[in-house]
Amino acid sequence: MTVHLGVTRELKEALYSDVTKESLSSGETFEVKKYALPQEGETVYIQLLLPKKPGTQTYTIDYGDLTPVAVISGGDRISSDPSSITVSSEPVRVVFSITGTAEQTTETYALSVTDATAATYSYSPMLRAVGQYNEGSGIVPFVWDDQTITTLSVSGIDDLQDVTVTGCFIGPQNTVYACGYYSDGSITRVLYWADGVPTVVSAAGVEAIARDIYVYSSHVYIVGEVIDQTVTPATYMPTLWKDGVAVDLLDDTVGSECVVRDVLYDGGTIVAVGNYNNGVNTYVGTVWTVDSENTVAETTLSEGDFVEVHAVAIDGSNYIVVGAFWNGSSFASAYWTVNRETLASERTTLTSVEQASRWSKAHAVDVSGGVVRIVGYYTDGGEQPAIWVDGERSALGSGGRAFGVAQFGTVTYSTGYNSAGTEAYVWRGLVRSTLVGPTVSAAINAIDVVNDGDTYFLETEEEASVTVEMDYEYEDADPDEFQPYWTRSFKKTYVCTKCGHYFKEGEGGLIGGKPFCKRFKCFMEEMFDRLRGRRK
């Protein structure tokens, strides 16, 4: 964000005339000594111009030791809180003051301006799901819109031999994002698509895979693992990529059972879930939170030893985290209710007592309209896809697993594939359709929806920090002599004692310590009068 500062000698009721402005980017320095500086006990006024942009902007200002004096718009003072100012029809000028201190001193003042405008993003109802298939001639990544399969481009990616699409998110302006990883024959690398255009994320030579993607404002968050194959067994570092920059979620890896599978953005905090090997327990269910400074905090789920964690969603004041835990004889599907503020958690088992000896896992969760929908699978003579609605299980046919769920209008959509991995499925309610297959391989791994055409407001965090420096030396003129030449190290603005005109050094002088300008020959007239008086 760019702000403008200007300097004047006197506060006026209307907008200032002949005010110099300097464009400042975040972190740049504005030096008042270029213009006017106050003498000891004297006050000068600086104005801050808050620019007008499309729509309505809201700015918050931290003045530090500076004193706000007035808020002016269209030539008039307006009633406004000087620390929070709205700009709508035209730019707004904020006037604040600096009072001079002792001579030959340096004073520094800090002023920060934050554009706190709520950015507006519109969404239309839509549904998208992602996956990949292979009909024998190579892997084809795709996105599906409830009607048509569209191939995701891999143009410009060198040596691509295989690709897996793992995550899907509908972002601002209905941009469709998908993430995944590809093989170049030696390692796997993370990439994502924005409306079908691919971008490679992980660094060259670094092996990594992606699990899920979330987009907030213009920021892209991807979670997955960075893999070190130079040790045996290979280690996996749970990783968050923030706009392409990798953030480790652990200080170090202990073993290979380290996975982060889902991510969301929650009011300035990034929340990721997964499990890892802590050297004592093989699977530790974990919620990671990452703040704007990339500080990572880790919280273990209650009864969270030897668990798999697959997904997370927001439900009011809680997160719903889904997965499975080892009950002594098999994995049992479960979810954890996690307080969003304290991260205290409580586990609820989805597998019934009579099915405790059968394997069951929860893979995805959707919360909408106060209803929690979870999909996964259970075993009963083979893998059976299932959906749990507020804890009540329903079968989704036979054979396979469900990996994605979303409520679109009044219909629950689930996605997955068969046990052999040769057919990709979509369920509308409990009715299954084969989207792709049978083929060599097929899977549809993730789904996302926007249910309405509402407008969403997202807070921006653009800040311009301005430093106002005062560094000057001042020498008084001899009060008994006129001084047409200036001893100051910079030009200063004065008000003519005779005519009231504002003038700069060099355009007048001091006579008897009082300023006189040359514009109306005030300086010459006063000097002549004084010299004439001396001759008498």
Can you describe this structure in just a few lines?
By secondary structure, the protein is mainly β.
Characterize the structure shown.
By secondary structure, this protein is an all-beta fold. The chain folds into three domains: 1-117 and 460-474, Sandwich (Immunoglobulin-like), CATH 2.60.40.10; 120-459, 6 Propeller (Neuraminidase), CATH 2.120.10; 476-536, no CATH class. It is 3% helix and 57% strand. It contains one helix and 46 strands. Strands 2-1-4-9-6-7 form a six-stranded antiparallel sheet, with no helix packed on it. A five-stranded mixed sheet has the order 3-41-10-5-8, with no helix packed on it. A hairpin with a 2-residue loop joins β35 (401-408) and β36 (411-417). The longest helix is centred in the last third of the chain and has 14 residues, at 522-535. The radius of gyration is 33 Å and the shape is elongated. It starts with a strand and ends with a helix. The relative contact order is 0.12. The model is unreliable at 6-36 and 471-490 (pLDDT under 50).
